[in-house]
Amino acid sequence: MIPYAESLLIFTSLAVILASSLNLMLGYGGMFSAAHAVFYGIGAYTASLLALHVNSSILLCVPAAMIAGGVAGALLAVPALRVKEEYFVVASLGFQVIASTVFNQWVAVTGGIGGLTGIPPASFMSIQVDSYGGYLVLALLCAAGVLIALKLLVRSEFGRALRALRDDEAALQALGRDPVRLRVATVVIAAMLAAIAGAIYAYFTSFVNPESFSLDESILIMVMVIIGGTGTLTGPVLGAVFITTFPALLSFVQIPSTILGPTQRVVYGAVITLLMIYEPEGLLGFLRRISRVASFSALRRWQPSTSSS
Amino acid sequence: MATEHILELTGLSKSFGGNRVITALDLAISRGGVTSLVGPNGAGKTTLFDLVTGFLTPDAGRVRLLGRDITGKPPHLVARAGIVRTFQSLRLFSSLTVLENVLLAADSEAGMRSSSERHESARVAMERAGVAGLADVRAADLSFAEQKFVSLARAIAKPAGLMLLDEPASGLDGPSLRRFHAIVRALVDEGRTVLLIEHNLDIVRQISDRVAFLNNGRLLAHGTPDEIFAMEELAALYFGDDAAT
Prior knowledge:
The structure holds two protein chains of two kinds.
Chain A: H1 2-28, H2 36-53, H3 58-80, H4 88-105, H5 107-110, E1 116-117, E2 123-124, E3 127-128, H6 132-155, H7 157-167, H8 169-174, H9 179-205, E4 207-208, H10 215-228, H11 234-250, H12 257-278, H13 282-308
Antiparallel strand pairs in A: 1-4, 2-3
Chain B: E1 5-16, E2 19-30, E3 33-38, H1 45-52, E4 60-65, E5 68-69, H2 75-81, E6 83-85, H3 98-107, H4 115-129, H5 144-157, E7 162-166, H6 174-189, E8 193-197, H7 201-207, E9 210-215, E10 218-223, H8 225-229, H9 232-239, H10 241-244
């Protein structure tokens, strides 16, 4: 049970990194991307190849994964962001399809459908991370680091310009800011952060194949951000936790094993749909509403006692 | 040798489909002072601002800022060259606070000034526009008049030599108009050049050093307010034939 819980927490931490990094593009920059799993995958493959053929040190593999992810981000962003903003999502979809094909077909490098196996465990100086607990600490530290970096970034001059870009591009241009450059930088940063999750994933599973970095994964990451609530740091974290842990929680419901899988998927889909219909601001909006109702109830309980005194 | 004109427009033309909005327009704006662009609705005033600031590309003609050709340059490069503009629809960053809105104008000069200098510049601009007390208020939560002055503060914070203000006084009440007048004159006194679009002719008469009259995309007259307002044919164009009689 403990390894299962640890494994779930590790995947949740990776999901937090992926959703939070996508939120930089989607929530703060207003750019919908259907290719975030590509950066996740490039991070995973880069770290895997280096760990297999050079050295499994985190100090080598993670920065290299980030650089590769950033380069991939630039490859998507530089041409795609010169066209109209709404076409970016289509361009990103094309990028995802191309990348999936490369992951599948470039057998000499990616191992094709069979993937890369036997990836050595992560090492840091002379310490080797070879337990679930060790990976949990590593994943939590990376997630915390990414969240802190994003918080600082959003509060910086860069983040201010990014939020302004979402509000009114023309007004920002009139103040001397190049929106294309700002968007490209945002995609590159988001891709670099997503690649960190890829590197940790590769170390932890010791196996990577294209299935983990497909269009389905990209859409799932987008759903995490939207379900949680865009444009805040907390929203995507809530979305990532919900999307990763909810199916696992459903497995504790006592239903016949023959219908367990389909039932889980139906309940899961229904909850997401209902949430979006009744709470378009996502889980964060839902929690805020509950908090307001609770505060109001507390106020109502408090008022009669003060008026009678 | 420094040119005496901060802005020179020569042979500027722009059409949308078959509709000619600006036709072979020549206009030179001297350094310093306030020039008002007036004319009936559809005269091409805002289109002219869009052509100067790079939001539209002219079909023909040149735009020169201090003698430097900026024709067809994208808006952010025009802004960096030394032109700041406001918009008729204000276009504040609604989810940002007033301070953040104004800071963005100062931020765009990054590399030239430190963060504390940019904050100081934003603070001064807010004080000059009379919105320092609103620094932490979200732009979306401001009244219309407050938004107008925040828009002006944003333009002030950018140290551009030429300010293009699109209907900055529309919708303002008497005291706000006097405040606006004082702010603009103070900007001119410190050496800035202001080109503004305004429909309130009382304001135009009070605030302007020069007036340019546009109609159907053509520059019909350019002179002092007294010269322009003495032309009965222009009044007829602006108010209809009855005004001239």
